[in-house]
Amino acid sequence: MSTITVTVDHSVGNGMRLDLYCLQKDNLLTRSCLKNRTESITVNGVPAKFSRTVRLGETITILLREPVVKTIEPEDIPLRILFENEFVTVVNKRQGMVTHPAVGNWSGTLVHALLWHWGRESPIDDYRTGIVHRLDKDTSGVIITAKDVKVEEELRAAFKNHQVKKKYIAILCGVPKEFSGIIETQIQRDPRNRKRFTWSINTEKGKYAKTSYRVVKVIDNYSLVSFTLHTGRTHQLRVHAKYLGTPILGDPIYG
C-alpha cells in the first residue's frame, strides 16, 4: 500500500468534487489509478465518497493498492479446480498461497498459477487479473475467478451488492460464551501495528463489519465454528474471532 496526502488549496479550485480535485491537482492521479487502486479515501480523517465537495484547507488522504505488475509471468503451480467453463474458474486455494501479487509476494501466487492454467502470457489488463475476491495467505477455501473483463466486472458487482454468501469454517482456541450470535463492530487498522486490524464500537472509526456465527462442535477447549460474513473487511473473520475471546487456532497475528 502507498499513501498520498494533499491539502486543498487555490491551485485547482474550491468546491470541486473530491475525485475531480484529485485528478486535476498537479496531475496527482490518473482516472484509471483512482478507480482501480483506491483502497480508502478520507477528508480530515473521515471516510469520504468521491462525490463529496472539498473545501479550502481540508486534508485529503488516499490509500492506494500496489499496481499489478505488467510483467507477471505464468508459473506451473498445481491447482485444485472445482469448476470451470468459458467464463470462470473456481479454485480451492490451498493454505499458504497468496491470492494476488503484492509487495513481498511477487511470485508463487494464485494469479501466476491461473495464467499458466489459462495458457496466457499476461493478465487481462494492467489492473485486472481475474481476481474478484481474496482469501488471506493462511486461509484455504473456494475462490471464483473471471476469464475476461466483462465477467470480472459482473462478479465484482455481485460481491459489492451482497449477492454472494461467504461462509467459513474455523477451529477456535476456546469456546465462545454464546453458541450462536451476530458480531457488529467497526474494523480499522491497528495504529500500533500496521499489519494488524482491530475492532471498535465507535461508529466514527474504521468500517462497519458484520459476522454471524454458530458453534458446530466442542472438543476440550477448542470449538469448530461456522461463520457467515455479511461484509468483506480485511481480516474480518480473524478480528471477530479475537473479539469473541477465541482466536483462530494457528493464527500468527491474532492468536
Looking at CATH, the homologous superfamily of the largest domain is Pseudouridine synthase
The major beta sheet can be summarized as: 5 strands, antiparallel
Radius of gyration: 20 Å
Which CATH architecture of the largest domain would you pick? 2-Layer Sandwich
Morphology call: globular
How are the strands of the largest sheet arranged? 8-12-11-9-10
Number of domains: 3
Number of strands: 12
Beta strand %: 25-35%
Main structural class: alpha+beta
Residues in helices, as a percent range: 10-25%
CATH fold topology of the largest domain: Pseudouridine synthase
Instruction: Give the averaged pLDDT, no decimals.
Output: 87
Please give the CATH class of the largest domain: Alpha Beta
Please give the alpha-carbon distance between the first and last residues: 24 Å
Tell me which oligomeric state these chains represent.
single chain
Low-confidence stretches: none
**Number of helical elements:** 5
| Helix-strand string | EHHEEEEEHEHEEEEEH
Structure report:
The protein has 255 residues and is α+β, with helices and mostly antiparallel strands. The chain has three domains: 2-64, RNA-binding S4 domain (Structural Genomics Hypothetical 15.5 Kd Protein In mrcA-pckA Intergenic Region, Chain A, Roll); 81-164, 2-Layer Sandwich (Pseudouridine synthase), CATH 3.30.2350.10; 167-243, Pseudouridine synthase (2-Layer Sandwich). The chain has five helices and twelve strands. It has a five-stranded antiparallel beta sheet. A four-stranded antiparallel beta sheet has the order 1-4-2-3. The protein starts with a strand and ends in a 12-residue tail after the last helix. 22% of the residues are buried.
